[in-house]
Design goal:
By secondary structure, this protein is of the alpha+beta class. It is built from twelve helices and 22 strands.
């Protein structure tokens, strides 16, 4: 068994840094996916798009106080309240604007853990990093197996999903705007822009302060000449808007019809707690009515049971729809502090509109920390709830698997290593469908309970095997 040579990988990465100040483990082989797994990924993409479409209906009808079902009463104003919690009024108004109806993220990336029972979908990201990195790795490993997303599908479909926002423009000017908060990912966005420029596309990677208003539109300077921007791909989370001096001009230009913005600046599409709404017992009939049978069944299997940590007081005899602590149902979320280590097999994380909500910065695994640390995490979730809600999610442990890695020492020999896998497929929305265009595999050492990009993980493209 051969694979890609260590020196070839190191040379390619050395010539182009895809992440700022980041390194990872190397492997001769792309991650293997069976044809059956690829078919499942295709179905997951279609289900995620249906989910986004249903979520929009839920949010808008909830916000308007309208009935959620066709043939029987169901009002849930609290759903919009959860999704709007802590958001600026102007952002909420923008998200509800009629011109935004039916506008969804141009890219979706679920985080899938490979468990003993198949995939578990723990998050659904609409502003994902790794697009440029995955495209780069797909190209690097091309010729070493049938790469998922071969033929630069990541680059082509990323651009096509943006250009579709301005179909009348033959060669629209696209600005990939990367905030300082997301600066770690700027190199891969610069690489994407350069690759598309080589194809004759007018795509530029910019900082927010390079964009300026002129006559109601947005421009940036090219060698002393102002160039009008047709499409903005915003690579920043919406909580970061307050730190972007030019953000108000984005809204004004969009309102004037001068620029298209992807992903749309609709906060409810970026909230982790939306997955908890999928499992809310009061909304079961809504999801059943607004999702196809196939999507509903698949998402019920994929999404771990999740709850919104809402500390609103209950009557003395009432209990929370949530996990148990000390073998008893909860009357107050703070009661979780009494949970046994087994009962603490739960993930606690802040929802979307917060600077710690991306990466794994707010994530606490209850069974992997002390009782004191767990209690502190629960208390923090309760204290922050008036402005920033937390989500509690059942922990589905990734199973141990094996993959060849290069020795990072002097020999650079390849050997099978144990580890755990997170798979991040990338779907670009083209002609109303989710187009699977590649996937990034993160292979972590087996002692890591929470899988994310780290120095001792391997970041790999995927290949299709028989």
């Amino acid at each position: 068994m051969t694979g890609l040579a260590y020196d070839s990988i190191r040379s390619a990465l050395g010539a182009q840094s895809l992440f700022e100040d980041k390194t990872w483990q190397l492997s001769p082989d792309a991650w293997p996916l069976t044809a059956e797994q690829v078919a499942q990924l295709e179905a997951i993409g279609a289900a995620c798009l249906e989910y986004h479409q249903a979520l929009e209906t839920l949010y808008l009808r909830s916000a308007a106080g309208k009935n959620l079902l066709r043939n029987k009463p169901l009002l849930a104003p609290w759903a919009a309240d959860y999704l709007d919690r802590g958001k600026p009024a102007d952002l909420v108004a923008h998200a509800r604007d009629a011109k935004n109806r039916g506008v969804f993220p141009n890219v979706m990336r679920p985080d899938l853990l490979l468990t003993d029972d198949g995939f578990a979908l723990t998050e659904l990201d609409s502003v994902p990093g790794g697009i440029g990195l995955t495209a780069f790795l797909n190209r690097l490993y091309d010729g070493h197996g049938k790469i998922l997303g071969e033929g630069d599908a990541m680059i082509a479909n990323f651009y096509a999903s943006l250009a579709a926002l301005r179909p009348a423009e033959r060669n629209p000017l696209v600005a990939l705007v990367v905030s300082d908060e997301a600066a770690t990912y700027r190199p891969e966005m610069q690489w994407l822009a350069q690759e598309l420029q080589r194809q004759g596309k007018r795509v530029f990677c910019l900082r927010p302060d390079q964009v300026f208003p002129l006559g109601g539109a947005l421009f940036f300077d090219i060698e002393g000449n102002p160039e009008k921007i047709d499409i903005i791909y915003r690579f920043f989370e919406l909580f970061d808007l307050a730190n972007i001096r030019t953000a108000k001009f984005f809204f004004e230009s969009w309102e004037n019809g001068e620029v298209a913005i992807a992903p749309p600046m609709r906060h409810f599409q970026e909230e982790k707690l939306a997955l908890a709404l999928f499992h809310h017992h009061l909304l079961a009939d809504f999801w059943a009515e607004h999702l196809s049978g196939r999507a509903l069944k698949l998402l019920r299997t994929l999404i771990p049971h999740s709850w919104v940590v809402d500390p609103a007081p209950l009557p003395p005899g009432a209990v929370l729809d949530g996990p148990h602590a000390g073998g008893r149902a909860l009357n107050d979320w703070r009661d979780l502090g009494a949970a046994s280590q087994k009962e603490r097999d739960l993930i606690l994380k802040i929802s979307g509109f917060h600077e710690t909500a991306w990466g794994a910065r707010s994530v606490i695994l209850g069974s992997d920390c002390s009782r004191e640390e767990w209690q502190q995490g629960v208390d923090r979730a309760v204290a922050l709830a008036p402005a920033n809600l937390h989500v509690l999610q059942e922990y589905r442990k990734p199973r141990r698997t094996r993959h060849r890695l290069y020795d990072a020492g002097g020999t650079h020999a390849a050997a099978e290593k144990d580890g755990r896998l997170r798979l991040c497929p990338y779907y670009f929305i083209l002609e109303g469908k989710a187009k699977l265009s590649g996937a990034l595999a993160t292979f972590c050492p087996p002692d890591k309970k929470i899988i994310h990009g780290m120095q001792d993980a391997a970041l790999l493209p995927c290949r299709i095997v028989n």
